[in-house]
Amino acid sequence: MKILIPLLLVFLIISCKKEESSSYESMEDINKKITQNKPFFDFDEVIHYQIPIDENEYYDLILADTISEKGKTFEFLLREPCPETKEEKIKFKEAIKSVDKVENTAINPKYYDELRTQIFAEKRCDQFFIAACDPIYRDIFIFKMNKEETGMAKICFKCGLYSFSNKSAIVDCFNMNGELSSLKKIISENKKN
């Protein structure tokens, strides 16, 4: 019995280590899969939705004892990842139209090349990190080709988290090469035009 307990502990430690090491890809493996500068989306039009709500107002809406319809709408838009199913996409379109604070701006086509090849594109990196915050996706980008939606990106500039509708894109290195800083600059310059 005395030998059985140490053997059991050794077995558990070894099996946990094996499971842990097989669940993560190395940076080298991720970089091998990446097609440098491959766009996440095909597009000929980009619409930027910005929901200017501060954190306190947002949390007051969603953490109330009884969450209002407005609170549910904001939670869906600002907290949920990009919609995937047809029903979720319809719900998203209805929700974004119902919010009175939304700023809706077409991005000037002069920025499309940078968006396509430098920002919303696969990139290699030396390391990546995962932010540890609760994202509030205040910035939402809708990508269209011939007036049809081809993709969506939801961005939380505060913590650097993001959600993309293109699940086949390799996004592990997104924002490891300064993409969010470049995107902020485009948003700022676009508002001036």
Question: Which keywords apply here?
Answer:
alpha+beta, five-stranded antiparallel beta sheet, 7 helices, 41% helix
Briefly say what this structure is:
By secondary structure, the protein is an alpha+beta fold.
Structural notes for this entry:
The protein has 193 residues and is an alpha+beta fold. Helix content is 41%, strand content 16%. The protein has helices at residues 4-22, 27-33, 55-62, 69-79, 86-98, 112-119, 179-192, and strands spanning 45-50, 103-106, 139-145, 148-156, 161-164. It has a 5-stranded antiparallel sheet with strand order 2-1-3-4-5, with no helix packed on it. β3 and β4 form a beta hairpin. α3 crosses α4.
Put simply, the count of helices is: 7
Quick one: how many beta strands?
5
Sheet with the most strands, sense and barrel status: 5 strands, antiparallel
If you average the pLDDT, what whole number results? 85
Blueprint (SSEs and pairs):
Elements: H1 4-22, H2 27-33, E1 45-50, H3 55-62, H4 69-79, H5 86-98, E2 103-106, H6 112-119, E3 139-145, E4 148-156, E5 161-164, H7 179-192
Antiparallel strand pairs: 1-2, 1-3, 3-4, 4-5
Helix pairs in contact: 3-4, 4-5
